[in-house]
Design goal:
Pfam families: DSBA. The protein contains 8 helices and 5 strands. Strands 1-5-4-2-3 form a 5-stranded mixed β-sheet, with helices on both faces. A hairpin with a 3-residue loop joins strand 4 and strand 5.
């Protein structure tokens, strides 16, 4: 009798579990919460943020971006692509900031330098007049001056900054990148920020990212 009751109870629980799973999967809708921008996903799981240090929205989003990066599944990389189309500075100055960030990231100080740059522009409101201003900020944040100078001119750092520009131009030309911050998951899914609940923004963003990462797993 007990065995029969156990089987009966299990049979009741299975449909409930299926309903819960369906509800979870249907929380986010194609066209409302995300768009498909590529046929194939990237070879490795990733979340990519297109941003600008001169963007006020990106400045506000930075703590969330850093929090999300720490909570991603093992093996999933969080990448930042700095754009150069913000009118607050010349493309050359924005390219210099891209290279400075890449150098900091290579030394394990990407978040530290990103926060410092955002703070100088949006909190202290001290604009970068030239590349020496950027260099001074890097040195204050314990980036070795000689190492920095060599890296700023290196083929690898310039190549990585050029790759950022290439990705920016490609998505801009396709009218996918129309503003920042913009997140792309696995190179295939563009997140539509405006559809997320502002009262529970970070948690819902994390859930959406996890959902999209699993779609091609």
């Amino acid at each position: 009798m007990k065995k029969l009751l156990s089987v009966f109870a299990l049979s009741l629980m299975l449909p409930l579990a299926a309903c819960a799973e369906t509800e979870s999967k249907s929380k986010f809708e194609l066209g409302k919460h995300y768009e498909v921008i590529a046929e194939q996903p990237t070879a490795k799981p990733e979340v990519k943020e297109f941003f600008s240090f001169y963007c006020g929205g990106c400045n506000a989003f930075e703590p969330i971006a850093q929090s999300i990066a720490k909570k991603l599944p093992e093996g999933t990389e969080f990448k930042k692509v700095h754009v150069d189309f913000i009118r607050a500075a010349t493309p050359e100055m924005q390219n210099a900031l891209s290279r400075a960030y890449l150098i900091a990231k290579s030394q394990g100080k990407g978040n530290q330098i990103a926060t410092a740059i955002f703070n100088q522009i949006h909190v202290s409101r001290v604009p970068f007049s030239n590349e020496n201003d950027i260099r001074s900020l890097m040195l204050i944040n314990d980036i070795d001056g000689e190492t920095y100078d060599k890296a700023m001119k290196s083929f690898s750092v310039r190549g990585a900054a050029n790759q950022m520009k290439k990705e920016q131009d490609e998505l801009s030309n396709r009218r996918i990148l129309t503003g920042v911050p913009m997140l792309v998951v696995n190179g295939k899914y563009k997140i539509k920020n405006e559809a997320l609940d502002a009262r529970n923004y970070e948690q819902e963003m994390q859930q959406l990212i996890d959902y999209l990462l699993q779609k091609d797993a």
